[in-house]
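Operator note (shift B, R.M.): manual run for Aminopeptidase N requested after the automated queue skipped it. Running by hand, logging everything below so the morning shift can see what happened. Input copied straight from the record, untouched. If output looks odd, do not overwrite the archive copy; leave it for review.
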Amino acid sequence: MIVPNWLPPVNPIQPAATLLHDLVDTRLDVRFDWAKQWLLGTATVTVRPHFYPQTQLVLDAKGFDVKSVKLVTGGKEKTLNFQHDKRRLAITLDRAYARTEPYQVRIQYVAKPNELPTGGSAAIRASKGLYFINPLGTEKNKPRQLWTQGETEGSSCWFPTIDRPNQRMTQEISLTVEGQFKTLSNGLLVTSKKNNDGTRTDTWKQSLAHAPYLAMMAVGDFAVVNDSWHGKAVDYYVEPQNAADARPLFGRTPQMLEFFSKKLGMEFPWEKYSQVVVRDYISGAMENTSATVHGTEMTLKTRRQLLDGNSDDVIAHELIHQWFGDLVTAESWSNLPLNEAFANYGEYLWNEFKYGRDAADLWSQKQAALYFEEAQSKREPLVRYRYADKEDMFDRHSYQKGGQVLHMLRNYVGDDAFFTALNRYLTQHKFSAVELAELRMVFEEVTGEDLMWFFDQWFLQRGHPTVAVAHSYADGKVTLRVVQKQDTLYQPVYRLPVTVTTWVNDKPTDHRLVVTKASQTFQLPVSQKPGLVQFDSDKTLLAELTEEKSQDELVYQFYHARNFLSKTQAIAELKPKVADLGVSSMMRNALNDPFWGVRAAAAEGLRRYRGPEGGAVRKDLERVASTDKDSRVRAVTIATLAAFQNEDFSKVFSQALNDSSYLVMGAAITALTKSPTVAAQSRIEALRTEKNPLIVGALSTYFTLNGTIDHYQWYLTQLDDADAATLYQLLQDFGTYMLRIPAVERDKALKKMEQMARTNPHYEVRLGAYHGLRTLSANMPALKTTLADIRSKEKDERLIGIYNLLQ
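Run finished. Output pasted below as returned.
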């Protein structure tokens, strides 16, 4: 057995940036050369020495042509000498300036973002700061847009600044654009002036200081849907054809503003709040101060798509960032979880408030699963002062694990202390940069307890506990044995405060325990043998947990569970035991649970069921697939029915092709893939013009087995129109589909796939195209040379690693 080594290579220490100067204010006057994809700018930057006198000012200015640098004093300008290496602009000042002497420099420059390397991370796929979308207007069905992405250090790709998270500045940005375009930036629109050449200059002023990476611009033909909260503008910028969908999508934002303001005890601090949806965005969304940018793929949904679930999670995530990240900012990327863990947990808090504890716990279950998946190959401290690249911090540790750790902290200290501490943290540190110790000290001030043990093991140590629990009953006592099984060479033995609940005569008794050893035994007094002993009955512990429970105990747990996670744990662990009448009865009852997540878990748990009441179970599943009020349950149940071999549910599947839900329709198409009826075939063919990603993805899978040469053009069209996530699957399906058509017909598609594998800006699209070509290489050996060349020229480390595994 190979024991994984969770210790990464020793990376350099990454401290917070040394403060030689403090940014004070930035004023920009910018216009754009769309054909060249350049920004033509004048920046007036106000700074002051942080403490020591300075004779030189160094600004980040990536990829610029710097035309001039001048000192501005009393309205007069004085030319300054400078050196610029395309990364940093070193300005020689006319004298030494003390910390009491703020001064201004004015820089004329041209920003050329496309001359910069792509860069980026899994979370933020590029780092060139400024992006022109369809700049010449030559791409059909795509608008001309321009937008920025500052995190991590992309702002200095479009204006000169000290591009570090521990800086803060006020700002004013004047954008000169073509008359038909709308603009958006941080703060308030203070003037809008029409120019004689048909352009317009909009000036946006951010009067409250924030970090440079949070500065933003967006330009495009947007419809602006207006809302408000407490007298502040709340606006939604979308493409005109999506105007009717903006309020159903974003309309809960004022309620979120109210909720977070009350929950945190601090009113939303900025002058307005806008959200804009843009094309080809390189991330999911970004919490620019007072002006969040959303990508179409993650956030945009039509009214019909909203039937399958809304975008509240990402909207809430970016909104709570306005407090955690924008108002109080991590001083270094090492401390990124101080931004992202809170944004992740903001999703939980909103779900809990708006949709109930069950919905929040379902969200939490998915987040924990994402972290555990990453932890199979990577285990790092949450706050890590050693990393190879700052982009490495944008992972499931900083986001998903971070949110789960905050949930444990809340559970440990209690709601009153938790939210009192958050208010104190925000109040004490607003408009400043912080590190982890400051969060810890606030919680210690509130609770009166030294919490170094909690912050050390969860924020500063790697990994998570792997816990095995067993219990027995004798002589009026439950003996509980708890073993921490994680490899303690790389991970700590954890201190784990947990609640253990015993049920006697259907009455629960909670026992508060603290596990502190690798192997520990506890004695719990009970009046008789309990029907159930449940470790971590609150279901807040981030751990890989196994408990020895009988089938009867698991069934008992389902019926007596106090939370969603306890119910679904019982369903999941009973899946292999569905030959028992009590279990099948429990599963059937779960199909009628008030919460849709339990019903969906039960439907999934009955996949390929072969136990007693088989006929009744199938009828229940058919009923749920056709009539459940939640489309997500209907879709899961259709997939469950499709897994039964040699059984005909085509009537249910065909009926589902007419469902109002895209999710259900997609599940039905997939279910019919292996054996479509004649009637279903014609109905599916009629869906070829659908653009919804769920339908396109399902049709792509369907045509791999049922397509003819007539569907070749359909695939080619989708390669031009589909989003990146859909293309990843579609390109692989296309490779399989082309095995079924004559080789002489494949040339056009092969050229297109090769081009996408080499040059598409989305790494997942390049990977999908590579997979598709690799499938075809099985009977087209010449493609192996092409694949080798693609591998040799790929620069993305993620893809290089995957390609090496595939060889």
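Quick read of the result: The chain has a mean pLDDT of 95. The radius of gyration is 29 Å.
Leaving this for review. - R.M.
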